[in-house]
Amino acid sequence: MTKDELLSGLPAKFHDDLTPEIHTLLIESKKTIVVLDDDPSGTNTVFDVPVLTDLSPDTIKDAIDEAPPVLFLLTHSKSLGTEQTTALHKNLGETLKEFEDDIIVISRSDSSLPGKFPLETNTLREALDIPKAPTLFIPCLEADEPLTKSDFQSLSLVDIRSGDITTKLADLPDGSTCFVDASSLSDLNVLSLALLKSERRFIIRSAASFVQSLAGIPSRPPLEPWQLQDLDPNPNGGLIIVGSHVPKTTDQLNHLLKNSPNLTGIKLSVPDIINSTFNLKSTITDAQTALTSGQNVVLFTSRKRIDGDDDPATSKAVSKTLVEIVRGIKDRPSFLVTKGGSTSSDIATEALGVRQAQVLGQILPGVPVWTIGNETLHPGLAYVIFPGNVGDEDALTLAVEKLTP
Fold first, then answer.
1. Least confident of 265-274, 297-306, 385-394
2. Boundaries of domain holding 13
3. Any idea what DSSP says for residue 134?
4. Is the N or the C terminus of the chain less surrounded, counting Cβ atoms within 10 Å?
């Protein structure tokens, strides 16, 4: 059954554009939407928004004191164990509790993955001391802890497309979990408007699209090439790091290798990395030589799956190697693309030293670009965070073409 067939018997979408009204309400409220993001790709629907990877209490408090409409906190909890995730969200909740009247908290996870739900939202509810707050789940993802059907409330498409769900939100039982059905941005906007008008507090678990809706951020075309270039001309090539192993990423990598001129491909053998026979120094030299000659360089992990691929120790060893390579390349690339959420997070925080960044926009739909801060290895560099499962086969090639002067 197609999506259109599934929705055919339901009311039509609410056609009024609520975005300006939502944005006005948020600004008038002087509240900040604080997004706890388990993966840096969660910025793929917003622009002109700050991101913090330094989650120390003082840094967070200083950022909220500046009252931005939206603030992303990169938790990277996707790569953490249960105890680490609990401790992190407890600490974040305790820091944010000081601003309880000035913030709206969203726990953001990839729309195709369960993430750590309801662990993260339950921990936040306790730390924020809002035991009566219902949890809104947008969209419905599978939970990694058992929930019984009696725990669920719901906001159906019929409810949402009535245009007013104020009463439904007010009537949700204290501490309940409500699953929200929404199939479009206009559906989400109905919910956003009602939330901003409500005096009730909620815990929100959502995918990236709801952040755009609740902030009243209009959709904007992808960035133009001139918006992505260094202010000072840089003759060096760009650097592309491919760590994701999902099939779509492999297809995009193969397309790039076959169709991109002026490109040097360097394969990193995962077995060599695991067996400590990988030649790090030679790889850094080869990459830097190609970059400074004006070649774009793509560093990619070997694609063939091996025993132990799913072992966290393997992922950690590969990540450490990628970080050391990027750190070891001293010359500034003209751009940097990382493929895969975990790869993007590790390169940003551990290789580049990003503590804060600004979301510039999207180079392609669903592919965010950050401008990284002055504290980093390459201040002001255009940093492209390319999720593993986003885009058609030629998407990575198109992004590199747009970035190449």
1. 297-306
2. 3-215
3. P
4. N
